[in-house]
Amino acid sequence: MEAEGSPDASGEKEVPQNENSDENKPLKDSDQEDQPDVEKSDTTKDFAGEEDAKKIPETSGEEKVKSSVSEEPQGEREVPSMGPEEGEGEVPSTGPEEGEGEVPSSGPEEGEGEVPSSGPEEGEGEVPSSGPEEGEGEVPSTGPEEGEGEVPSTGPEEGVEKPVENAEADKPVENAEADTSSVYESKSSSSKEPAGEGEVPPIPEEQTEEIMKPVESAESDYSSTQGEEEQEEDIEKPLEAEKKPEKLEKKISETFFYNYEDLCSQPFVTSDSGIPIYLLSLIHSFGYDCTKRANLQLLDSKTLLYVAGNQLVLLDLKTKQQSYLRSSSGGGIGVITVHPSKQYFAIGEKGWKPNIIIYEYPSLKPYRILRGGTEEAYAFADFNNHGTLLASVGSSPDYMLTIWDWKQEKIVLRSKAFSQDVYKVTFSPENEEQLTTSGSGHIKFWKMALTFTGLKLQGALGRFGKTAVTDIVGYVELPDGKVISGSEWGNLLLWEGGLIKVELCRTGHRPCHNGPVNQLILDEGELVTVGGDGYIRVWDFETIDAADSVDDTGLLEIEHMNELLVGKNVNLSSIVKIHDLGLPIWYAQDANGAIWKLDLRFSNVTHDPECLFTFHSGKIEAMAVSPVTYLMATTALDHSVRVYDFIDNCHLAEIKFKQGGTALMWAPRVVNPKGGLIAAGFEDGVVRIIEVYDPRGLAIVAGRTNVGNAEMRLKQAFKPHTAAVTALAYERNGEMLATGSSDKTVFFFAVEDKYEPIGYICVPGPVQALQWSPPSHADSMLLVLCENGFALQVPSPILREQDTETTYEIKDLPTQYFHFCSIKSRIKREEEIERREKKKQEEEKARLAWIKKQQDMGMEIEEEPEAEPVEEEPLPPIYIPKEPSPIVCGFYSAPGKFWLSLGGYDSGYLYHCAFSQVQDHISPESRQDEPFDVIPMENTEDNSIQRISFCTSKLLMFCGMKDGAVRVYPLQDKDLSADMMNGYWSFNIHDNDYGQIQAIYSSYDDRFLVTCGADSNIFTFSILSPEDIQRELKAKVPSPRGGLEKEKAAEDIEDPGAFSIENARRKKEYDEIMKAAEAQKDKKRQELITLRHEFHCLLQKNMELPKHMQLHREEFEMDHRICEEMDRQTAQRIQLVQKELAWDQEKHRIALQKLQKRFRDTLEFDTVVVHAIGSTHQISTYRLLAISERFYRARKQSQAGKRRTSKLGKEADQRQDSLKDSRQAVEVTKEEREADKLKKRPQLQAGVGRFGGNRLEQVRKIIEKADLAKAKIMQRRKEWDELYKGKPSDNYENPKDVQDIKEAQENMGDFKLKTATNYKIPEHMRMNAEKKKMQLRSLEAAIHEKKLNMNKWIISLRDLKVAIIEEINCLVQELKSIQSALNASEQLPIPPIPQLHPEETPEKKFQYDNNILLKFQQEQETKAKAAKQVQETGSFAVFGGKFLHVPSLKDMDMQTRALSVKSMRIASLVAPVQPKTFEIEKAEPTEMEMEILRREKIRNIYLQETLIKRINELVVTFDSELRLLRHQKLKLDTQMKCADLRHITWFEELLLLKNFEKHEDTLQERVNSLSNDVEEMQWKLENYLTQMEAKKYEIIKLQEREKALYVTFQASLGENNKFASFLTKVLKKRIKRVKKKEVEGERDEEEDSDEESEDESSLESDEEESGSEDEVFDDSVCPKNCDETLFENTLQLREKRLDIEEALVEEKKVIDNLKKEYDALAKKVKVVQASFDTAEGELEAFQREKQQRLNELHVVVPLKLHQVEYMVNGELPNDLSQALVFTNQSLEYLQQRIMVLQHEKLDQRQLYKQARQQHKQLIRDRREIEIRIQRLEENCNQLMLMKFGRVVDLEALQTLSINTNLEELKIKMMEKEYVQAQELKKWEERIFELRQRLMMLMKENTSKLQQLNSFCVEKQGLETKLDALQNNLGAEFQGPRKAEIQERERLITLVQLQAQEAEVLKEEITLLSRKDGRIFPPPQPPPNTKILN
């Protein structure tokens, strides 16, 4: 409620007020008419002990503010309520007769005594009701204007039932503040509800407790989004706030319960209708909404809890009995949850402002009601672990998260959870101040944060990062605060800090579940995941809790500990746990329609999953009721048909098919008197006739057990449609069955023992319903209702009059059409017109009544002026929807008339329609038919009637609604009317959102009603009182037919693509045509064969004739043109066939290529089995796959990698090289750098050589001579440096010795076993995944190479066998020719010729020719014919949904003519040709011939034996070769098996190494990085040392130079020089010098000083004291008698001395800096070295761990008994686990190593002695060489003194030359002078040009000035003439002529232009006078410029 008063000065004042957030039911229509200003009302009651309840106006829904209590700050004031003794304002309650218990809101006049509440802002303050101490009355807050507030209804003493108020709703939570930043309170709206639903009784006063506590101000953080609502009045009396010390707080008693009968929703009955309220009573629920989330809870070990529509079902698992709880609002149930103690359970409802009702178990009494938590429905709820708090989350549109103190029915905190669907909310098990929510594309983490304004609910949205966004259904919070959730793709996501820490999957990146993870449970230290794939997996909690990402993919592979597959086609949604007799039992919700009992102990006694109950999953499509007993059948898209007994409330039987059911009908009595037939339609167009029978009536069959009460059996299956069957209907006489489908056809069947098709008709739309006319109608007609608004009526087709030979379509059946045209908008328009007329009439009546009343009172009535006509609102327009409204259901009313119920726009009415008699000339689509009568149906505008049925007596009409409600209309007459439909009974049964009723039927005796809905639920009701049902009622299952057990099961149609009946008919016709064509072809072929046989006989006879009488082959041709024409036609047909088959040929060719590439190209060797010839031995090749190029490349890279040096070694070498280079660079002396400069000089001089002439040539020669001398000197120094470099340091060690010592230290001692705990893996033996891969590749290559070589040997043996067989063939042929000359007795048996087995030439399988292809074709044709024969007896496939085209016989015959011609020619070529033989008379042989014959005979016998022996030798040789090779192959097989075992072991190692690889790489990278850092720092240290050594060497050189300088000075003085002391002082005098500034580039032109003066000018000397003398002497003047040359030389030496000293100082500074850097770096090296050692230790430990894991792998080592040397008591032990497998080579190596080490020790001692002797000899040699060097130096100095008189520098003497710098500068100066002279000449030429140009411009300006003067004179004359003309104008000219005016304007324009030109000329003159060359163009005048006088 918005307060009109302004807030106090602080702006923080807020007064709490009672908050009533209960039902908030809208007013009825009558209430709204009486009180138009009131939107809704509520009741409240004072629990302070008053006898009469005080009424307090309540705020409206959008103005309510949820407050929370915090400590009251100082200065805040509370507004007290005023008692009645103060006289200002209790609002009196009106009686029921005044307003039915409703109090209108008080206006300004009524509320003078009302005290406004003040808050921080408008509408945010609430006024609390007074306590018992404050007085007897209550002060209400001001009522809002125009119905914006809530007005309480009357108390119970006035006869109106009050809703229960939240006793603590007016008390905000202490120390808490509502986080309402995201709370959106929607505006309340009125809607009509059935009376009695949702009314909540009040809490009695005796059930509340009074608690006195200080009143604390509650500061609300509410930010309203309804800012558009403002107060209309600004007048409000301010109220002085007084602080109340105490306030009464009421608490609900722990023992208080609500009354369930007052709480639950009741059926709606129209008033004064006389319909009993208990018309229907719920008996049983057969369904289960298995797709609802968390729709399975446990109260104890025997009670299940789940939601079914508007009921909560409590199922006793032992007795299978159900008990029900109704929803209170009738809007449905959204969520259920159970208290941790199992003592309570909560039901979150659906509807407008739904409640959460908490029931006590097992009493099932309503315990608490939580109000105002959401707008429309609750999506999930959860108790905390202690059960003190309840968290709920709403669904669309508000998604409100609310925390409840449920025992006190008050809201603790609330906030908007998210902007999309929220699936789940839970408390943290460890910290109840934290919550988690998840849902569509999000997860959110909440915490209750205590801020300075109070307790708030703060949420942090989880960020997916790189992971794809997913819906999160299941999650669980871990004890340390992490959250692990599922995902849509089946992986687990570990959340920490609002981010995904790692994504968990199984090894090989397989998902944890093959589908979404629906639930996660932390149970006894294990994580249990429930997946949609039917698996329950158990994971190690510690592994998951410590999981972390190891690479950029974010995936971590783990494996589950246990798993359970519940079953196939199982989609687990959730599981719950209960302990039964101390054992944990789990119950699972299967989204595919089942409840499972599970045992997750995973032990030896674990029970298999047990399916407790099965239900339909998803929408139930159809239902039917037995016409003779209490049975019903249902079907759904879950492929099942089920039968239920709704008397015993049990599921009797079920039958499953391949497709889902869509229609169902129980055959009537006339069809099957026993009631045992069901017709079911399916989504693939198949109709199945199913028998239901009692199997106990069958004859006893051996082995038959577990006989149930009912069974179902398929009797017949046929497919009349190509799409889903939507309707079934039996004709009233039972002679015909009609089926309708969404393929727009209706099929008729004759009902007999076997259903026979009659025919079908096409209809204009998908069939929605079918109904035959009732028996009361004269004719049997079928009403066809289509979804798209069409209705048809057709008579039943006459049996056996339809021609079904070609097609089943009935084309001449008379059809009546009705195309519905919408009239709803017209009805609305007429209703509006009628309402307006009625209103006018009422106004007129009221006016007349008033006039009459005034007249009766005797008052005169003045004539009223005619009122101005009021503009009425326009009438509703006529609207017809573009898409026709769908027809939902309908039924016959009379012959040719029917009622329709429509959905969409036209819902809300029942339309009475009739078929028009004019049907012939109008197409159905163009018809526009309107109903002739309508009945409005109450409250069906958006809730259409889906199904209508009648009881048998037609006295009740049952309607199934879209919102899941059941309506019952009592009928007094068979004809429906509007008056009859006014009263009805309504009850919400199924789910209001998605539970539209699919079928509603009464039982055959009208005692029961059954309904099924799209929410998977099935309900049964008793009609009228349940007491009327006799207990002896039983459902009788029909008895089976006689001989049923002997009948063969009917053949089902399982293929969804099978032919329909019509398509099968057309397929049969097509097959008959094809059969006739084939018969005609066979006849022609037989004729051709006969003719071909006769022709062959003629050819044979021709061959038998003498040659001269034979005819040539060409002569048999009667006319060659015939053959040519046939050949041409054949070629054309072949071409045509090739074109037709080109695509298939290419397709098959590509397929063959792919097959070959897949299976043959990768095969290097196939299995070739070579058999021995003379024995049974055989040998086979290895089936060998070719190694890929990738493998070869990898192998080459590995081999190349072996030849390469390691990376670290290369880096070390590079560093050493760089160190050497740096040392060499440091040791480069100044003289070398000067030499480099000298080398560059000739190049520089060559560039300026043309300016020097002869002088330059002289300079060049002098320089070349000096350079040669310097080069020799530098070469000599270089040789000395190299010699010194080769000198080893004092601590030098031979690298080979160091390596040998290191190796000895590492390998000293016993043999290192890999299983030892202290085993250190050598660097070269460390293994990683890459090395193991290379090992595997090498092993695979070796195996491949071995097998390849063996295969080559076997193939060569096979080739040898082929050659032997060829040779034996030749020998056998020769043997046969020899034996032909021998007698039979002399002939030896011929050895058999060996043959090649097919296994020996497998490649021939892929070699084919035309004969093989033809043979294959014949085999395929034979198989196809057999398949056709089988197919003809079965179903047929639909040809793309269209009928077949049958080719003609002519077309079929033309296709085979080419083949017959070809076969005829082939047969003619293979005709037998018998050669003609001639007989010659034989003569007797002579003796000579006999002798020859005897010799020939002996020879032949010898040759015969020789050949047979040769054949046997070949066979024996081959067999021996084969046996030898076989023996080698057996050995190789053994090796290959060992290699395979090694390959397996290595592969297992590779898998382990891959697991270790990531961590190892991390450690190795760290070690490498630290190693690089250490080496780099060591290199820098060595570099610093090198630099310091170089600097020290430089210092020594400088000191030597200084000594040499003093020596030179002493030498120049000579002996007994009297100025020696003075010159020495001059030399040693310290002077301050300014450092030389290096001047780059050219010097100034005015600098002419010499080189000596330049050096002197750069120095500033100051006199200083020298030594201990105080005298000051002038060193700038040479003393008298002193040699000036000597003095100058001393000055020069002093300068050199100063240069040397400065250089020494600089070098020492450099050394100090280097030393500091060296020390700092050395400290850093120690730190890095320590880190490096630690990292190496970690790596070594990791290597040991890795080695231990590798040691755990089992390695197969085949051993022979003689290889086992491990004996216990001389026997081989049974347990070899403690044995060590050791190679012989290693053992021999260890034994030999002892001797090697002994010899090595002796050798080292001898070597040491030799080294000591050599060392002593070298020391002696060095002393002798040093003495010799000293002598040579003394001789050299003496010779210099003799020649030069002093010791001089010979190198400087050799390199003396002229001052080259001065010469170069002079040449440069000459060059520059020349350049400047050229430039000066150019500037003078330019000045001359500019002067000439200036003169020309001055001349031009002069001419322009003269022109300007002439223009001025001309202008003056023209002006004079113009004035004269104006003065002399005559009187005859009244005005100026047009020509004169134009001329005048032209002249004025001309003058203006001239003036402008003059100005421009002046400006140009001015510019030119300033020597500026810019000239601007004159400004152009505008085109229409006019100057007036």
Structural overview:
The protein is extended, with a radius of gyration of 59 Å. Helices cover 35% and strands 18% of the residues. Helix 6 (1061-1104) runs parallel beside helix 17, helix 14 packs antiparallel against helix 18 (1487-1613) and helix 18 (1487-1613) runs antiparallel to helix 21 (1684-1751). The longest helix is centred in the last third of the chain and has 127 residues, at 1487-1613. The strands form 18 sheets. Strands 5-59-58-57-56 form a 5-stranded antiparallel sheet, with no helix packed on it. Strands 23-24-25-26-30 form a 5-stranded mixed sheet, with no helix packed on it. The chain is an alpha+beta fold and 1989 residues long. It contains 25 helices and 66 strands. The N terminus and C terminus are likely disordered.
Short account of what is shown:
This protein is of the alpha+beta class. The protein is 35% helix and 18% strand.
Helix fraction bin: 25-40%
What is Rg? 59 Å
Please provide the count of β strands: 66
Strand order of the largest sheet: 5-59-58-57-56
- Counting DSSP H or I runs of 4 or more residues, the number of helices is 25
Q: Tell me the β content.
A: 15-25%
Please describe the topology of this protein.
Elements: H1 29-34, E1 41-42, H2 96-99, E2 151-152, E3 208-213, E4 247-252, H3 260-263, E5 268-269, E6 280-285, E7 297-300, E8 303-308, E9 311-316, E10 322-326, E11 333-338, E12 344-349, E13 356-360, E14 365-370, E15 378-383, E16 390-394, E17 400-405, E18 410-416, E19 422-427, E20 434-439, E21 442-451, E22 454-461, E23 475-477, E24 483-485, E25 492-496, E26 499-505, E27 517-523, E28 526-531, E29 535-540, H4 541-545, E30 555-557, E31 562-565, E32 572-580, E33 583-590, E34 594-598, E35 610-614, E36 620-625, E37 631-636, E38 640-645, E39 650-656, E40 661-666, E41 677-682, E42 687-693, E43 711-718, E44 725-730, E45 736-741, E46 745-750, E47 756-762, E48 767-772, E49 781-786, E50 790-795, E51 816-819, H5 824-856, E52 887-894, E53 897-902, E54 909-914, E55 933-936, E56 945-950, E57 956-961, E58 965-970, E59 985-988, E60 997-1002, E61 1008-1013, E62 1018-1023, H6 1061-1104, H7 1120-1140, H8 1142-1160, E63 1163-1165, E64 1169-1171, E65 1178-1180, E66 1184-1185, H9 1189-1203, H10 1207-1226, H11 1230-1247, H12 1254-1285, H13 1295-1307, H14 1329-1379, ...
